[in-house]
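Continuing from the previous page of notes. For each protein in this section, the sequence appears first, followed by its structure tokens. Read the first protein now.
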Amino acid sequence: MKATGRDGFRWLFLLIGGVSIANAVWMLAGPMHWYSDLPTTAPHTGPFNPHFVRDIGCAFLTVGIALVWAPRAPHFRLPLAVIASTFLVLHALLHVWDTATGALDPHHVLLDLPGVYLPAALMGWAAFDLTRRDRRAIVCDSSASPS
């Protein structure tokens, strides 16, 4: 069965995409405000660098656009989900590494749970599931074609 976008991922993509775009706009428009007022205490990660905050804002904007676009473009949904989940999962793994090596206090795990770990886990699962479905569709399509 080909992906149609009617399997529940649409709302997941729109939610995480919308939050990513909102976060990106905040990072791009007010990097110091984002740095100082983000509930996850960004100052614990190092000194303020407006260019770096805006760089990451561009990454979140890219993820957000990909995820908002994905439900509207079923044929591109899988690659858009994989691209978005790649950034989100790698970003979460960086947070895991920083916590495991002592660069961040262990309490950051709870602070980062809703905004870093949960979106990464959900999008990682979505990309995996869509990849599995796509492979199954390819196998089904190739077995249905005449030899």
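Done with the first. The second protein uses the same format. Note its length before scrolling.
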Amino acid sequence: MSTEFWIQMIVYAVSLGSFGGVVLTRLTYLEKKMDKHNCLVERMVTVEQSTKSAHHRIDELREEK
């Protein structure tokens, strides 16, 4: 096998490795964004439940008047 063949194989391997690194980096970034989004959704559910509870208490106070 010629030297040119091995040089091409090394270039392909380096290119594939760098592409894989970019893909993994992007996936890590997207996972972090998804975690932030999920935390926001969990907090909003808590806020909605708290708001619903507050509205029920306000309605009860109005009925007592």
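What the second structure shows: The two ends are 95 Å apart (CA to CA). Helices lie at 3-64. We return to this in next week's lecture.
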